[in-house]
UniProtKB/TrEMBL annotation:
<dbReference type="InterPro" id="IPR036736">
    <property type="entry name" value="ACP-like_sf"/>
</dbReference>
<dbReference type="InterPro" id="IPR009081">
    <property type="entry name" value="PP-bd_ACP"/>
</dbReference>
<feature type="domain" description="Carrier">
    <location>
        <begin position="3"/>
        <end position="79"/>
    </location>
</feature>
<protein>
    <submittedName>
        <fullName>Phosphopantetheine attachment site</fullName>
    </submittedName>
</protein>
<dbReference type="Pfam" id="PF00550">
    <property type="entry name" value="PP-binding"/>
</dbReference>
Length: 80
């Protein structure tokens, strides 16, 4: 298990594991979704994260953020 993750990173990582149907421990925070999934999984993850964080961030804000860490950063500091 990776240590030092904040709550947002843990939530993003959990959603990834659910969508990819794997153990959370298999998801590294700097892993790129495009290396383990693809665009369909990326869109599903984004939709589920918006629900998990009760957010409405548009797809284009998240599409180029393809790691747990970069996605979590957007939810921690959403664009205005």
């Amino acid at each position: 298990m990776e240590t030092g993750l904040n709550a947002t990173e843990r939530t993003v990582r959990s959603v990834w594991a659910e969508v990819l149907q794997c153990e959370t421990s298999a998801i590294a925070v700097d892993m790129d979704i495009m290396d383990v999934g693809g665009s369909v999984e990326l869109i599903q993850i984004i939709l589920e994260l918006n629900e998990a964080f009760d957010s409405e961030l548009p797809l284009d804000v998240l599409l180029d953020r393809t790691t747990v860490r970069s996605m979590a950063a957007v939810f921690d500091n959403p664009p205005r």
